Amino acid sequence: MSTTTAPPFAATASTASRVLLGAFAVAAAVDLGSLLVGAELGHVLAKPLLMTLLAAYAATRGAPKLLTAALLFGWGGDVLLLLDADWAFLVGMGSFAAGHVCYLALFGRRSTSTFLGLVYLGALTTTLASLVPDLPSDLRIPVAGYSLLLAATACKSSSLGRLAGLGGALFLLSDTLIATGIAGWPQLPVPDFWVMLTYIGAQYLLTTGVLRAMYGERRTTV
Question: pTM (2 decimals)?
C-alpha cells in the first residue's frame, strides 16, 4: 500500500504559516493588553509588528499581491499614527486609503447586495452629516473622502463572503471610533483598546475571507 506525503516545500510553508500566525496572535495580545493596562511601550513595540506578521502569513498561504499590499499600507498607517504630529495623521490616513484602494481593486466587479449598499450609504451619510461639523476644519475634507473609500471597502468586502464582509464592517467601525474621538464625542472606556480590537479583527477577517474566497478552506488552514 502506498502513501502520499506533502512535498517538502509545502510542509515548510505550512510550518512558516503556523509560526507567523502564532506570532501575530502574540503581538495582538501584547498590544491589546498594553492598552488595557496603560503600558505605552508595549503598544509602541507591538503595533508595528501586527500587519507585517499578518502580511507575511498571508504570503505563505499564496495571497494575491493586492492583499499583501493592502496589509503593508495598513502597516504604514499604523506606524505613522504612532507619531504625535498632524502631518503624520494625514499621511497615515493616506496610507490606509491606499490600502482600501488595493482592497477595492482586489474585490473587482464582484456583485454586492443592493440592500446592503443602501444600508452603508445611509450609515455613511448620517455619520458624516453628524460628525464632520465637529471635526477640525483642516480634517473635514480628508475624513469625508477617506470615509467614502472605507464604506466602499466595507460594502464590497461582503461579495467575498461573511468573513470578509464582517472584516470590512469592523474596519468601518474602528475608523469611526477614531473619528468620533477627534470630534470630541463621548468615548468608551480605554478608547484606544476598542479601536485596535476592531482594527486587528478587521484585518485578520479580511485576510482570511479573501484567502478562503479565492483558494478555499485549505489555503487558510495551517
Answer: 0.91
Task: Name the band, by pLDDT with cuts 50, 70 and 90, for residue 97.
Answer: very high
Let me know: does 45 contact 71? Beta carbons within 8 Å: no
Is-contact 211 219, C-beta < 8 A?
Answer: yes
* Local confidence band at 155 (pLDDT 50, 70, 90 cut-offs): very high
Residue 74 reports pLDDT greater than 60: yes
C-alpha cell at 153: 471597502
Cα of 11 vs its chain's centroid, Å: 28
CA atoms of 103 and 70, how far apart (whole Å): 6
Grid cell listed for 34: 498594553
Element (H, E) at 200: helix 191-215
Output the CA angle 131-165-95, nearest 5 degrees: 55
pLDDT for 138 beyond 80 = yes
Asked if 48 and 71 touch (Cβ cutoff 8 Å), the reply is: no
Q: Which cell goes with 220?
A: 487558510
Say if residues 107 and 156 touch (Cβ distance below 8 Å): yes
- Tell how far CA 144 is from the center of its chain: 19
Q: Where are the domains of the chain?
A: 64-220
